[in-house]
Amino acid sequence: MKTTEIRNMSSAELETKLKELKQELFNLRFQHAINQLENPHKIADVKKDIARVKTILNEKNA
Q1: How far is residue 29 from each of residues 12, 23, 24, 61, measured CA to CA in Å?
Q2: What's the pLDDT score for residue 62?
Q3: Nearest to 6 by CA among 23, 24, 18
Q4: Do residues 20 and 46 touch, judged by C-beta distance below 8 A?
Q5: Which residues contact residue 54 at a Cβ distance below 8 angstroms, ignoring those fewer than 6 apart?
Q6: From CA 48, how far away is CA 54, in angstroms rounded?
Q7: Who contacts 25 (Cβ-Cβ below 8 Å, separation ≥6)?
Q8: What is the pLDDT of residues 8-56, one digit of tens each?
Q9: Which CATH number belongs to the domain containing residue 18 in this structure?
Q10: Of 9, 32, 33, 34, nearest in space to 20 by CA
Q11: What single-letter DSSP state applies at residue 1?
Q12: Do the Cβ atoms of 14 and 53 come closer than 8 Å?
């Protein structure tokens, strides 16, 4: 997910996206634990997306 896409979202959309990303991260970690994850780098990508969303949410709320 690109930063420009995130910046164009409203605060409510960002909150929803954050919940979705956290759920996806949980699912990826679970798959990794039971050795069903094909691409372990996806976990890092989702973590970075979560950080981007949180950063922009903090900018909008400040």
Answers
A1: 26, 10, 9, 30
A2: 81
A3: 18
A4: no
A5: 18
A6: 10
A7: 43, 46, 47, 50
A8: 999 999 999 999 999 999 999 999 999 998 999 999 999 999 999 999 9
A9: 1.10.287.310
A10: 9
A11: -
A12: yes
Residue type for 46, please?
V
Residue 44: give the domain boundaries.
Answer: 3-61
How many domains would you assign to the chain? Answer: 1
- Distance spanning both ends of the chain, measured CA to CA: 23
Three-state DSSP at 39 gives: coil
Convert the pLDDT of each residue in 2-16 to its tens digit: 889 999 999 999 999
Helix (H, G, I), strand (E, B) or coil at 40: coil
Per the structure block, which two tokens stand in for 44? 């890092």
CA distance 6 to 11: 10
- Asked if residues 28 and 37 have their Cβ atoms less than 8 Å apart, the reply is yes
